[in-house]
Amino acid sequence: LSPGAKMGCFTFIKVMMILFNLAIFLGGGTLLGVGIWVKVDGESFLNIFGALSSSVLQVVNVAYLLIVIGAILLVIGFLGCYGAQKESKCLLIMFFSVVLIIFIAEVAAAVVALVFTGLAETLLTGLVTPLLKDKYGADPTFTEIWNVTMTEVHCCGLNNYTDFNNSYFYEKYHSYPRQCFGLSPPLAILTHICLLQGCFPQILEEIRTNAGVAGGVAAGIAALEIAAMAVSMYLYCRLDEK
């Protein structure tokens, strides 16, 4: 390529890098704002987006998750956008390093999820069950999240109703949450009240059912990360030739 063509290619890639990372920066700011909103006024958020609360994200603290993801995207977007605009080798190599670390962490998490599914289930149970015992019925936002989740998914607790044994809620009301009770099938000889199964097995089954879609999304994200690293390294190397 002629020097003019090379410069035109460099300028085009630079502009695409700026626009792409500007979108990431704005997206990160949006997620950060939503995360702060959920943290400050979780009940208002659930009233608007209640139908979405039956997802697996309800098992963890959505507010902190959104805040962390938003902050990471803000950093990545700033480094990529400002680094390309200022043609700063320092910021470009920082952008490359951050994206590489995230990419490696995602690959490691995927490997752990595939190889140590049982261990992940044990860790999740050990983390969430104590929260159910201590915060359900005591923390309004936490309680509302789980109420909507159990209603939408038709489940009880993380593993089953025993998650509420010796809990704050059970000690106060001497009963399990009303969402835990359901009627037996109408063809049963006797109609009686039965306790529903846990949310985790149903969520896990839903994840397995949609594994193809999740895998496609993960592959798309990985491809974008690889492309972003390649572009940042191209700009980094081309700056030496200018």
Q: Layout of helices and strands, plus pairs?
A:
Layout: H1 3-40, H2 42-49, H3 62-86, H4 89-115, H5 117-135, H6 140-153, H7 168-173, E1 181-183, E2 193-195, H8 199-209, H9 211-239
Antiparallel strand pairs: 1-2
Helix pairs in contact: 1-2, 1-3, 1-9, 3-4, 4-9
What report would you give on this structure?
Interacts with SLC19A2. Interacts with NTRK1/TRKA. Keywords: Glycoprotein, Lysosome, Membrane, Transmembrane, Transmembrane helix. It is found in: Lysosome membrane; Membrane. Belongs to the tetraspanin (TM4SF) family. The chain has 9 helices and 2 strands, in the order αααααααββαα. By secondary structure, it is mainly α. A two-stranded antiparallel sheet has the order 1-2. Helix 1 crosses helix 9 and helix 4 runs antiparallel to helix 9. The longest helix has 38 residues.
